Amino acid sequence: MKASQGRVSMSESSGRPLDVLEASVGEQVTVRLKDGEEYDGELTGYDQHMNLVLDRGDNTTIIRGDNVVSITP
């Protein structure tokens, strides 16, 4: 797996989404949901269902994986 400035893209990884998430833990990300809403924060955790935990400074947000459309650094 090749990392570029601490980030890993799907094309650089083995193609497994959870590997990309693992490489993004501790990084600032933007999460876009099905309804168009976006959340910015530090990715602090995830699980096998791609449920996400974001630290947004003033609060911690848990996002259900089936609502996620994209995660970008």
UniProtKB/TrEMBL annotation:
Q: Name one GO molecular function term.
A: RNA binding
Q: Name one Pfam family in it.
A: LSM
Q: Per UniProt, which keywords does this protein have?
A: Ribonucleoprotein
One annotated Gene Ontology cellular component of this protein: ribonucleoprotein complex
Q: Which domain of life is it from?
A: Archaea
The annotated region (Disordered) lies at: 1-22
Alphabetized InterPro entries for the sequence: LSM_dom_sf, Sm, Sm_dom_euk/arc
Q: SUPFAM superfamilies from the entry?
A: Sm-like ribonucleoproteins
Output compositional bias ranges, type Polar residues: 1-14
Instruction: List residues of the Sm domain.
Output: 16-73
Q: Does the keyword Iron apply?
A: no
Q: Supply the name of the protein.
A: Small nuclear ribonucleoprotein, LSM family
